[in-house]
């Protein structure tokens, strides 16, 4: 099972870095004339250090959720050992979705002034602080919600799938609006929202498939034990 977890994690990383990240500049481009500039835009995007924060968040979330769902031996000794890790992972991923949703909505309403509150410009530090606050709030919510649950990963995956669908229902219409208005920088924000929603949606399928596979194996083992 651990080998399958590693394989799924590597496959997801390749999709995220090699497919979903280049999708952002493609969504921002206005017409076919921008296609020759796409490789340079993708390379410049990879050089942005802020890009690797959400990439690291979703990759770490994928790995942790997979191995928390595969290795359940801790339940025999310390039933609550991993609850904080699970809540931190869930909180980070839902915070990322919320962050993308809020700024996509701001871009759809305010256009290129999505990074303003009144007359003040939102700095990178303030944006990261807002994301950290969302992480803390969602982590507390998940701890309260999951502390008495026996199927932590299953519930987290369900929340992530629903949250990603909801986020896409906001980000996609906002992207259409800003593109029709010919905004300059707002399409980059909404494209980030779309890519983030798809990334988290794909992330939720990995643990789901592995959990189903694990349950099927456990079913075979129980039948074999009963037959003996």
Topology:
Elements: H1 2-28, H2 38-46, H3 52-70, H4 83-110, E1 116-117, E2 120-121, H5 124-146, H6 152-180, H7 186-227
Antiparallel strand pairs: 1-2
Concise overview:
By secondary structure, this protein is an all-alpha fold.
Describe the structure.
With 228 residues, this protein is mainly α. It has one domain (2-227). It is 78% helix and 2% strand. The chain has helices spanning 2-28, 38-46, 52-70, 83-110, 124-146, 152-180, 186-227, and strands spanning 116-117, 120-121. The protein has a two-stranded antiparallel sheet. A hairpin with a 2-residue loop joins strand 1 (116-117) and strand 2 (120-121). Helix 1 (2-28) crosses helix 2 (38-46). The longest helix has 42 residues, at 186-227.
Which descriptor suits the 3D outline?
globular
The total of helices stands at 7
State the end-to-end CA separation.
25 Å
Beta percentage is: under 5%
Keywords:
single chain; 228 residues; mainly alpha; two-stranded antiparallel ribbon; 78% helix
